[in-house]
Design a protein that fits this description.
single chain; mainly beta; 5-stranded antiparallel sheet; 1 helix; 10% helix
Length: 69
């Protein structure tokens, strides 16, 4: 199993679409929980790390590393 490190600012593609139809999410915060922002509609939500890691298909665009906030 490959361990992937996720950073704030990364754009990830999820396995299932959001109800708005978007697959792309920006990671806003990492840790025990992930705060994600839908790039289609702007909705922000929190996911626990295990659920997030199961749902991610790929990192589309790496961000600028850990950003404060």
């Amino acid at each position: 199993m490959q361990l992937v490190k996720y950073n704030a600012g990364d754009v990830v593609k999820m396995r299932k679409p959001h109800p708005c139809g978007g697959y792309l999410w920006e990671i806003m915060r990492t840790g025990v929980d992930f705060r994600l922002k839908c790039l289609t509609c702007g909705r922000v939500l929190m996911l626990p790390r295990p659920k997030f890691e199961k749902s991610v298909r790929a990192v589309v665009k790496p961000g600028g590393g850990n950003l404060p906030g």
